[in-house]
Amino acid sequence: MSPQTSLVVQIVVFTLGLPVGVFAGVAIGGLAVRRHGLDRRPALLGLAVAAGLLTALLGTGGLPPFPPVDTLHWIPFATLAAALLLVVFDLRPLRGADALSGAVALAVAAMGGWLVLAPLIAAGEASVMWSEAGTLLVLVPVLAFDRASGRSPGPADLAALTCTAVGASIAMVLAHSALLGQMLGSVAAVLGAATLLAWRRPALAPGHAATGAAYLTIALLVQYGLGYADLPLPSALLVLVAPRLAATAARALGGFRALALAGAVAALPAAAAAYLAFAKAEFLDGPADESATGADYESLY
User: Fold this and answer.
1) Which of 2, 146, 194, 291 has its CA 20 to 30 A from that of 96?
2) 164: which residues sit within 8 A by CB, 6+ positions away?
3) Where are the domains of the chain?
4) Minimal CA–CA distance to 159: which of 48, 263, 265?
5) What whole-number distance in Å separates Cα of residue 163 and Cα of residue 39?
6) How many alpha carbons lie under 13 Å from residue 58 in its C-beta half-sphere?
7) Is 42 in contact with 206 (CB distance < 8 Å)?
8) Beta strands per DSSP E along the chain
């Protein structure tokens, strides 16, 4: 096997095969055990999605030490924390659960964003601080509206998150970060598998843990791209609002039509985010930079 073929096989295995396999193993294995009733199935899917997301992040980014040396390695810990905290709201109904789950998701997003961008914020990078403020200003109404709507998540939410992750992955590659693009592509593979499973098995409906952990993982990877790659702020904001717009558009539909509409609506802002990243890359890599070797971006790969 040639080195190029070996590299492709490793990328396919660790980016696609292993994360999807772990997700499917946890989800299908949990269904086979049947220790809980149908009301516990959202928690099962949430844990399966979290396991797939963690495998995706660790398979592409490597096992992190604790405390992490690279701030990128805080994201798996934030994903795990979000899933474990939000799964409580899937296991049993709590008074004020919608407001509490929204507050938990926002707290994890804010803390995770601060940990990811802490070195740049400490250095007084004004653009990074404005970017962090901008993303939080978007996250607050998105998460608040999501919980205040009183609507339980469904397969359409996962379809919207899948298309959003695909668009974000393309945008990251165009923003000179192959690693972040690979991570988001792996996240998209897990969410795509979760969408198909939730659609074909309606009893295995997604809950707060599945959609919340997935959304926060995408949001934190986008925030990292704002600080350490060339992702433009408008691209990040489009990625953050895409799932909410899609879920709102597909609310009145059901079945495959809801999946298709949610995916199509999410794909529009995600594609716009990728185009804006492409436009910025074209500007940065213009005639004045044609002699560059790409060493400036070495740390991002």
Assistant:
1) 194
2) 218, 239, 242, 243, 246, 266, 269, 270
3) 7-283
4) 263
5) 28
6) 18
7) yes
8) none
Comparing 8 with 139, the larger pLDDT belongs to 8
d(CA 62, CA 106): 26
**Residue 157, both tokens:** 């939410």
Give the integer Cα–Cα distance in Å for 211 and 188: 13
> Which region, left, alpha or beta, applies to residue 150 given φ > 0 means left and ψ of -120 to 50 means alpha?
left
Q: What is the DSSP string of 241-295?
A: HHHHHHHHHTTT--HHHHHHHHHHHHHHHHHHHHHHHHHHHHHHTSGGGTT--SG
With beta carbons less than 8 A apart as the criterion, state whether 191 and 214 touch.
yes
Specify the long-range contacts of residues 1-5, CB closer than 8 Å, at least 24 apart. Answer: none
Half-sphere exposure of 294 (CA within 13 A, CB side): 8
Residue type, 126: A
Give the residue from 193, 150, 185 showing the smallest Cα distance to 168. 185
Half-sphere exposure of 15 (CA within 13 A, CB side): 17
Computed from CA positions of residues 155, 161, 167, 169, in that sequence, does the dihedral angle turn out positive or negative?
negative
Report how far residue 259's alpha carbon sits from residue 206's, in angstroms, rounded to the nearest whole number: 13
Query: Can you say how many angstroms the Cα of residue 63 is from the centroid of all Cα atoms in its chain?
Result: 19
| Of residues 299, 236, 297, the one with CA closest to residue 69 | 299
pLDDT band at residue 33 under the 50/70/90 scheme: low
Tell me: the pLDDT tens digits for 104-123? 666 776 677 667 667 766 66
> Does residue 171 contact residue 274 with C-beta atoms inside 8 Å?
yes
253-269 pLDDT, tens digit per residue, is: 777 888 888 889 999 99
Continuous segment of H or E residues that includes residue 149: none
Q: What's the DSSP call for residue 204?
A: S
Q: Contact, 226 vs 240, CB < 8 A?
A: no
